[in-house]
Write a structure and sequence with these properties.
Layout lengths: L5 E5 L5 H17 L5 E8 L10 E9 L2 E11 L2 H24 L8 E10 L4 E5 L5 E5 L3 E3 L10 E9 L2 E9 L8
Parallel strand pairs: 1-2, 8-10
Antiparallel strand pairs: 2-3, 3-4, 5-6, 5-9, 6-7, 9-10
Length: 184
């Protein structure tokens, strides 16, 4: 880390065991992403719950290049080590997600398109879908999910995923829309 780890303990006595656990947890985060530039951990005993016994709060703030800040916390646990574990679990998940996103490992979901079956050539096993913007997409028997290809009729409102084909756009995973809305 470029900036040394900052540990703040409020409204409770500081202990070497707690500091050691925090340092171990931060080391685990650094093993996953060695580019962490700073980490601040705040552990406090909550003063809001006197009648319910001791409650602990843990806040973690991480910085990594290319991302503003990761903030994780866990409030109101009766055991400071459980609150610490839960806050670091949350920080780990956020760090993993951010790291995957920065690497480009995040899978983007394909956009579902909507249209109307323009023509069906049942004997030849293919058809065309027209969208509201005037484009047409080819589809074959193998690209129809529901209902079976044989039950598709011209005029049916469908949803599908777009794929590039040799002669233009192709429709994959074609299915009749459950709630028929006008095509987009």
């Amino acid at each position: 880390m470029q900036i040394p780890l900052q540990i703040t303990v409020r409204d409770m006595p500081r202990s070497d065991a707690l500091d050691a656990r925090i340092r171990d947890k931060v080391a685990g985060l650094e093993r996953f992403n060695p580019r962490i530039t700073s980490c601040r951990v705040i552990v406090a005993e909550s003063r809001k719950h006197h009648q319910q016994g001791r409650r602990f709060e843990v806040d973690i703030q991480l910085r990594i290049p290319g991302h503003a800040e990761i903030v994780a916390n866990h409030h109101a646990d009766e055991d400071v080590y459980v609150a610490l574990r839960d806050a670091f679990d949350s920080a780990t998940r956020q760090l993993e997600d951010t790291t995957r996103e920065q690497r480009g490992d995040v899978k983007l979901h394909e956009q579902v398109l909507h249209g109307t079956v323009a023509r069906v050539y049942a004997d030849q096993g293919f058809g065309f879908i027209a969208t509201g913007d005037g484009r047409e997409y080819y589809f074959s028997r193998e690209n129809v999910v529901h209902p079976p290809f044989e039950h598709l009729e011209a005029g049916a409102t469908v949803q599908f995923l777009e794929a590039a084909g040799s002669d233009g756009g192709q429709a994959h995973r074609v299915s009749v829309r459950k709630h028929a809305l006008p095509p987009e």
